[in-house]
Amino acid sequence: MTRRTKISLVPCLFLAAACLSSGVAQSASTQETITISGKILGAGGKHPMYVALWDAAGFLSKPVQEVRIEPHSNAVFRFQVAPGTWAISAYEDINENGKLDMGMFGPREPNGFWLPFHQWHKPRFTEVCSKVNQDFPNADIELRK
Q1: Do the Cβ atoms of 135 and 33 come closer than 8 Å?
Q2: Between β-strands 84-92 and 130-132, what pairing exists: parallel, antiparallel or unpaired?
Q3: How far, rounded to the nearest angstrom, does the alpha carbon of residue 26 sit from its chain's CA centroid?
């Protein structure tokens, strides 16, 4: 009797493990994602543009995602994210060195945020972020110098 119990327990354990892993995979695949997309306005189109998606933890130091838009191409971007609070920035890389060049009074290359920022200090996440719970197709960014 003891041997029979052990033999029937093995298939039950495999079945339980399979159901558990299936449930974990199902819950991960049902996690909601939304799309934030838009256009870059005011760019010359002769130089690459960079668009960065930011969260509060890495704001202005480590973007969550970054997109490079090639010169003479359609200046659109698209990010797939979880609902939450996000900021998006963009700049046109005039000297094509892959970074936003800073001067004494701020950026020296055309740049902007999804929510326009016109202050004379370094932007804070709370000044340029937006809470997003559904697809947002018009997150356009106007570059200014």
Answers
A1: no
A2: antiparallel
A3: 24
Q: What is the CATH number of domain 34-142?
A: 2.60.40
Question: Structural domain boundaries of the chain?
Answer: 1-31, 34-142
- How many helices and strands, by DSSP H and E, does the chain display? 2, 10
Which SS3 state, helix, strand or coil, does residue 106 take?
A: strand
Q: How far apart are CA 99 and CA 20, in angstroms?
A: 46
Burial level of 124, CB count in 10 A (0-12/13-18/19+)?
Answer: middle
CA angle 94, 99, 104 (to 5 degrees): 80
> Nearest CA to 133 among 28, 31, 35?
35
Q: In angstroms, rounded to a whole number, what is the distance separating the alpha carbons of residues 117 and 134?
A: 23
Give the tens place of pLDDT for each residue, 86-121. Answer: 999 999 999 999 999 999 888 999 999 999 898 888
